[in-house]
Amino acid sequence: MIPFMRRTVMAEKTKPLPRAFAAVWAGLVYSYSLLIVLAAWEIVARAELVRPLFLPTVTSVVQQFWTLLAEGEIVLPLLVSLYRAFAGLGLAVVAGVLVGLLMARSRRFRWFCDPLVSLAFPAPKIAFVPIFILWFGIDHLSKILLVAFNCVFPMIVATYHGAVAVSRTVIWSAEAMGTPERKLLYRIIFPAALPAIFSGLRVTTPVALIIAFTTEMIAGGGGVGAALMFAQRFFQTPTVFVYILIMLATGFVLDHLMLTLRAWLIPWQDEGGEA
User: What single-letter DSSP state applies at residue 186?
Assistant: First the structure.
């Protein structure tokens, strides 16, 4: 091989290394605070400044994670919790978007719904857990409906504000060209309100997870929350921390997936609301 060609091939082979190193370095820089917390946690636990019953070591939690994963005690409970969270969130999104659009376009409908939304939006709706358990039992239905009940009002508010922010000039132009109200909603107002809807969806996604996990802790019926409480009753502290970290990681991953979905569906507008 010609020396010049050999050097070119070697250079091409070594190009991915700096990129891989840069990616690893970027990941370390991004997560350095988390690594510091984990290191401090391990040092405190190893030094037994806190009893292992209350604070196990990071390594023991990691070992317990792999044990639970091999026994199928992570994937199935997580799928149950995600099913409840996303089923309730789906109901809330559909109902919230419809109600928000109707409130933005109908004065009478807004007059009827505004007091209800104003009352329920800031209320601590988790207090309805005993009522929902009494009405719908401890299985999936009560948890799904409670998730929907907690998420629907933020979706109504986000959709309404996104719809009323649509330029009146655009709406008047469409009406002047004879666009019927139904087409006006799904061809102009709904696409223009999408950024606000996705902002509401990003807010309600962690709410759905919180409500699903919390209701499982209170009412049982399977899922990550119920598994956590079962481990806590028998003082299985590493298992408790495993499920806590799974909850944290689930919220982190879903939030980033939501940002990716937003950037893919509405690339013309960033998270700050600037077109």
Answer: I
